[in-house]
Amino acid sequence: AEAFIPLEWAAPVTEPPAVLLSGLAAGVAIGLVSSLLGVAGGELIIPTLVFIYGMPVKAAGTGAVLISLPTVLVGIGRWVRTAKVGLRTELGEVILPMGLGSVLGASAGGLVAAVAPGPAIKLLLGLILVLSALRGLGRH
Is 35 inside any structural domain? Predict the structure, then answer.
């Protein structure tokens, strides 16, 4: 397990009833925050899986994608229903090309992740999260 919070009360959740209940609670909280911020939630899901459930960071990345899928689908459905966001130009100029690039990047990333050491991936994730947080705080 890769959970490293050095507090006894923050040990990884391992008992089946606790895993189910805490998973539901974490899912509700992450889904709420993700919907409010308009993000898929990986920035919250991966640390939750690693630090609370002790999941290896590589598995947590894959798990985050699977967990995020319903959130993304709900967000897309909400966008389609409200149609308040005018993304027609951005869709062709940025979103579709970026989506295609992400498929290529995910394919390459999967190959790299298979051979990259877990601690290096965890460090990279941590740096990205810290930089994202600092940038977000700098805007407000």
Answer: yes
